[in-house]
Amino acid sequence: MEEVSHEKLWHRLQWDPRHWVKEVIRISSILYRFALDCYTVSPWRMSIYIVFQVWGGLTTSIDMYFTGKVLNTMQNALSTGSLDGPILLQVIMLRISLRCIDGSLYHLNELTKHWLSTRVRNRFERRLLESNLRLDLSSCEEQETFARYRKYLEGKYAANAWNTFDEIIEGLKIFISTISQLTFLFGVLGSHPGGFWFSLICLIHAFSAVSWRERSYKNCPTYAWDSNPHFRHLNAILQIATDVKYRMEVISDGISNYLEKEWFKASENLVDIREDHYSALRADKSLISRIVERMIGDLPLMFYTFQVYFSPKAFSLSAIALTQQASQSLSRTFYIVLNPYRPFSGFIQNAEELYTLQDSDPLLKMTDGTLDYAECALNANGMNITFENVTFSYPKKTENVIRDVSFTIKQGQIVVIVGLNGSGKSTLFKLINRLYDVNSGTIFVNRHPITSYMTKSLRKVMAMHYQTYTHYPLSIYENILLGGVDDGSVDAENEQALRNSVKEAIEMGGAEEIIEKQPTGMDTVLKPKFRARGHKTEAAGPEFKAKMDEITKTSELSAGQWQRLALARLFYRAKSKRVRLVAVDEPSASLDPKMEYFLFERLRSLSSIHGKTLIYVTHRFGYLTKRADLILVMREGQLVEQGRHNDLLKLNGEYANLYKLQAEAFMSDE
Ligand SMILES: Nc1ncnc2c1ncn2[C@@H]1O[C@H](COP(=O)(O)OP(=O)(O)OP(=O)(O)O)[C@@H](O)[C@H]1O
User: Name one GO molecular function term (predicted).
Assistant: First the structure.
């Protein structure tokens, strides 16, 4: 798909000075803020880096000035017929020294740059992660918003804060370099008639610079992948933050602070480890090769010098030298201009976007309340929930999926919600967890409107198992532990107590067998976020390919096994004293009948022994519904019946029909 611009050429040519002044002010303020943010990461290191960049911008002009001057002297010597040997030697020595200094400085710069790049990236990525994790579900479901974050957090080259800064500095360096060279050239070579050849040499040199870059890749099949556990962990956390499928649970379980802390820990552990697969695939250059790389640019000049030595009258030395120098330096400008992947304006836009996302509070759609649930309901073990004429439609949808629904759930009750597909059962869940706000009507929690609570404090006392449960790309142990984090930390006396508690939850979820089969037990990572990059792998031999397959292999579980792990996480959360409501949406969809029975009994004990309110969404009738204190029957977004099993059967309505349908199916089988 191409977006055809219908803008008329005439409009594009119109020039509004006020607009330009405004643009310049806007861009300058972004660049100033960005530069200041990068500079304060480490002022002295950044100063070194900038001094090297400025040096880089001026080196070529210094070279040109130097060469022009020396070669003029040589020209004079040649015109008089005698060549001064010691001066020539001095010239060559000085040039070699200059190259050595330049190469060494470059090398030092590369070292500083690496230190700075990780810190600058960390600074911006942490801020982005913080603002990303503040987003509510409605904002996250707008794909565009999430994609914007993902672009920056996934570490793609062009979207990386350090590369943005580096490219902007590079652009300024090129600017300084070009201006200084042109000033010099016009001063010295203004009247020289070699314009055509001059441009041609510049172009040829520019293209040779591009091909040099390509040759710098290793000349054999290469494959780079993440093996460092801290780096994998860091990426897993970024994936949880940037993939919308995890968001519902991230919000419900209140694990944002935990994720931030874990990310910070992982990045602290990594610090200087480079993670760029491209650089791993690239042939590492030594100091010597960097100096040689620079000397290659001087080969034509050396060639001319020898030519002049043998037939001095055929060449004008100063013209050759300056053409050579100018072609070398301006080729860099050509290279930047010719390179479509690195447009300078794109990097300024990047810096602007980084701040738009970072300061993204307006993206939050929900307003928070002020009541702390724990303080309001000190003595209650369960939770009271009342829906009063609630109507709801999903953001950006016009159809009401919940219509005028009213009911009351009392403390410690077991409530079962039934109804056909799409009748709004899961949506009721999301409203109870305040993932969305209602369009009209009110939801009361312990007699206060749900909106008057601080959402964090409310979600903290709820344990939710969604129909679309997910498995985080972390170890099994951490997956379960995440069910019980409180404001970023896990409450336990020690590591062993924590592990025992997780084990207990695994048993409650019926997942012991799965853990036993894993090579490293509950520390196994089942779904790692795996990043790898190959180079010329198609030409690799079978042994190399087998090793690659081994690296990329991940374990797979059945749907029921994944569900058991998710239930272990739910139990880990639900057994905590602070949790007052346990709500499960189709928790047995993938379970066998035996496991389903145990699951319901375990959940029931949370209510009967510990007094927690239990809400259970299901399509299966019978055992469950007979033991429920309240059954809510949903149809097309409306609550059509409510009551206990026997009362509803007597009504002979929707519930009785659904019940009979299932009962008849069993009877006919028999
Ligand atoms: N995130 C969403 N955005 C827009 N519409 C949605 C969203 N989630 C659900 N819906 C719509 O809301 C309606 C009710 O869906 P809901 O998932 O609550 O039904 P359900 O009774 O739980 O169904 P099932 O038995 O299949 O789980 C459906 O028409 C569905 O298409």
Answer: ATP hydrolysis activity
Q: What is the pLDDT of residue 214?
A: 47
Query: Where does ligand 1 bind, in terms of residues with CB under 6 Å?
Result: 394, 397, 401, 419, 421-427, 467
CA 423 to centroid of ligand 1, rounded, Å: 7
Q: Are the CB atoms for 402 and 462 separated by under 8 Å? A: no
Nearest atom, ligand 1, residue 430 CA: 18
Planar angle of CA 367, 383, 435, nearest 5 degrees: 30
The closest residue, in CA terms, to atom 13 on ligand 1 is 422
Q: How far is the CA of 139 from the centre of ligand 1 (A)?
A: 18
pTM, rounded to two decimals: 0.69
* Residue closest by Cα to atom 7 of ligand 1: 394
Atom nearest to 586 CA in ligand 1: 27
Helix (H, G, I), strand (E, B) or coil at 360: coil
In this prediction the ipTM stands at 0.96
Given this model, what pLDDT does residue 7 score?
54
Provide mean pLDDT across the span 126-134.
Answer: 85
Round to whole Å and give the CA distance between 235 and 277.
Answer: 14
Number of residues that make up the chain: 670
Instruction: Give, in order, the Cα–Cα distances in Å from 289 to each of 100, 107, 292.
Output: 11, 11, 5
Q: Which residue's CA is the closest to the ligand 1 atom numbered 12?
A: 401
Strand partners, 133: none
Type of residue at 61? S
Q: Which amino acid is it at 158?
A: A
Cβ proximity of 450 and 384 under 8 Å: no
Mutate which of 401, 584, 632 to test ligand 1's pocket (most atoms within 8 Å of Cβ)? 401
- Cα angle 657, 659, 662 (rounded to 5 degrees) comes to 110
Instruction: Report CA(427)–ligand 1 centroid distance (Å).
Output: 6
**Residue 328: its pLDDT value, please?**
64
Residue with tokens 């801020």: 127
> Measuring from atom 3 of ligand 1, which residue has the nearest CA?
394
**Per-chain mean pLDDT for the chain:** 79
Of the candidates 470, 659, 630, 434, which has an alpha carbon nearest to the alpha carbon of residue 562?
470
| Class of the domain covering 10-216+285-363 | mainly alpha
Angle between helices 287-296 and 85-133 (to 10 degrees): 120
The phi and psi torsions of 239 (rounded to 5 degrees) equal: -65, -40
